[in-house]
Amino acid sequence: MSPFREDSLVWMNGRLVPWKEATIPIASHVVHYGSSIFEGFRAYANAKGTALFRLDAHTKRLYNSCKIYRMTVPYTQEEFNQAIIKTVELNKLKECYVRPIVYRGYGALGVDPFPNPVDCAILVWEWGQYLGEEALERGVDVKVSTWMRMAPNSFPALAKTGANYMNSQLIKMEAKLDGYAEGIALNTRGHISEGSGENIFLVMNGTIYTPPLSSSILPGITRDSVMTLAREAGFKVIEETLPREMLYIADEVFFTGSAAEITPIRSIDKIVVGSGKRGPVTQRLQAEFFGIIKAEKEDRYRWLTYVKV
Q: What structural domains does the chain harbor?
């Protein structure tokens, strides 16, 4: 069942159009060669209204990704921000997931992307817990994938592109068919990288570890938020290359991401993580993260952008 309402509106190249009319030609470059850059983040309902989480950071990463792929966005970042706000408001969704996408449209077929226009769209829809309704409290069971993350200097891991997520699909499908909620990918050197769509953190003896950008990970916005909150709470946060076996002996392991938020991992390759329950550090970070989102704590980093729904 589609999560999109047929009366929903999609922003396309400066116009709001009905869902059924938000189409592209089959000969569009993106269909044949995967030439798309996208973002994903949530709008949350809280006591003060509806708030977009870290809007500026997400569109900044969108523009950085486009720069890497030599795609010139025909709007300023502020214009794109306002288009996102307008799309959420006019769809009247108090809570939703937001998907801005920049892609190469129809011009000429061939690997050379330059003859094709750079098109833009924004979709919004209601989306529940990414890894299951009880995942935030009970955690999820995952496996180390047989698929590796892309090698350095092959695909740019710092760019959030549709093409990169073909790799993510392989990781996700393998995990689900093997009975797990998610997979953890290693990089080409055998070190911990990330999940199919999430960054990963480990807790050992009260210290928090996470792979560095050089481990072929996406520079996650939620990852950055969690690191900020952890350091503020007095935890030592270390970004360093991590061997696979640390996953099995860590006290706590958790995913972060705009869709997954902060999701604890209870087992990896059928080895129980810690006590098999959400750990105290994960729970503390969830409380700080959701406290800000729900307007129960001060938005001291100005992460929330309120919209009029």
A: 9-125 (3.30.470.10), 135-293 (3.20.10.10)
